[in-house]
Design brief:
- The complex is a heterodimer of chains A (250) and B (78).
- With 250 residues, chain A is of the alpha+beta class.
- Chain A is built from 6 helices and 10 strands, in the order βαββαβββαββββααα.
- Chain A has a 7-stranded mixed sheet with strand order 1-2-6-10-9-8-7, sandwiched between helices. Chain A has a 3-stranded mixed sheet with strand order 4-3-5, with helices on both faces.
- In chain A, strand 8 and strand 9 form a beta hairpin.
- In chain A, helix 2 packs antiparallel against helix 4 and helix 3 crosses helix 6.
- The two termini of chain A are 14 Å apart.
- In chain A, 48% of the residues are buried.
- Chain B is 0% helix and 50% strand.
- Classes of the chains: A alpha+beta (250), B mainly beta (78).
- Chains A and B meet through helix 3 and strand 9 of A and strand 5 of B.
């Protein structure tokens, strides 16, 4: 798995694909590999990867494992059909699985030397992609959103995209989780139940979230995703991001 | 001479506080320059802190401690 060189060909001819993984931890592992590869290569690459997990799970920062209730809460969540896995970026509880697509960018630290610049690097292309469909996506907190943060993207106050980062060596991994067409009430319920089992009163609300399938008129599952990721791939390629070989992204 | 291990002052722009999320070394151990020592989190961003020099490390802060820019979290004596 390596980064390809960004192509200078006509953007409209670029191919794209969302990489499918059986489990979220496989996609997360690949993100970490990309980050390590970029550091080993002397941080010269800027890579983009779109991926999704076919099986649902809840993903939490590794620091959650230190919570005294973690083991029991994770076991109960798994019994409800939501196994819990950990990641090495910050934030809170996030769902993964059908209807959710992840964008991972790995870029040299020089191009995103502050946390803010890292978030702008991943949010700006997403805002532009949304604008192509007439959606005004904005940065900001969403009260009641899972894994809330200042660099969420929301549309009309409802969370559409969550973001996080990991900064290691001379590279930055920026992650965005895009709500394409998941069952919102189901994943919010799973995150709330897990949060409660950890002893945290859960502020998550289904209506604090939205999804592309609701926002884009005439959405049809595969066609809609294909259209959105095509636009996003064009924008990322224009910005100099290369796809990941094997992903057939650009 | 002791070398301070500090939270970077230029990693983020605002006055957000960070949290020390993990130590990846133990108190009193020998570390080499560039060794990964700790991870901190701010604004949903995980950041690695590496040793600025080689020597025996003394950990000054604990996991879950709240940190500000420039806070010293460890010292390394050569």
């Amino acid at each position: 798995m390596t980064c390809l060189k960004a192509s200078s060909e006509n953007p409209t001819s670029r191919r794209h694909k969302v990489m499918d993984f059986a489990h979220a931890q496989d996609g997360l592992r690949m993100e970490m590999l990309l980050l390590a590869q970029n550091n080993a290569a002397g941080q010269t690459n800027a890579c983009a990867m779109l991926w999704r997990a076919n099986n649902q799970s809840l993903v939490v920062p590794a620091s959650f494992e230190r919570l005294p209730q973690f083991v029991r809460a994770a076991r109960q969540s798994a019994q409800r059909g939501w196994p819990v896995v950990t990641r090495r970026t910050g934030g809170g509880i996030v769902p993964q699985g059908p209807g959710i697509v992840n964008l991972a960018l790995v870029l040299p630290k020089d191009g995103a030397d502050t946390i803010e610049k890292g978030y702008f690097a991943i949010c700006t292309p997403l805002i532009e992609a949304c604008a192509n469909f007439g959606l005004k996506a904005e940065l900001g907190h969403v009260n009641g959103g899972v894994c809330d943060g200042r660099y969420n993207l929301h549309v009309g106050g409802q969370k559409l995209v969550g973001t996080a980062q990991r900064r290691a060596g001379n590279s930055v991994l920026c992650q965005a989780l895009i709500l394409v067409d998941p069952e919102l009430a189901t994943f919010v319920g799973a995150a709330s139940a897990f949060s409660l089992a950890l002893g945290h009163p859960h502020p998550f609300r289904t209506e604090a979230h939205t999804r592309l399938a609701e926002l884009i008129a005439g959405w049809q599952r595969d066609i809609g995703l294909d259209a959105f990721t095509s636009i996003l791939a064009e924008i990322l390629a224009r910005e100099g991001f290369a796809g990941v070989s094997g992903a057939d992204f650009f | 001479m002791a070398i301070s291990v500090k939270v970077p002052t230029d990693l983020w722009q605002g006055d957000d506080e960070a949290v020390l999320t993990s130590w990846l070394t133990s108190d009193g151990s020998w570390v080499n320059e560039g060794t990964l020592l700790a991870e901190i989190m701010v604004a949903k961003s995980q950041f690695e802190i590496t040793a600025p020099g080689s020597g025996k490390i003394k950990l000054l802060r604990s996991v879950e401690d709240v940190l500000a820019k420039g806070d010293e979290i460890a010292s390394i004596s050569q």
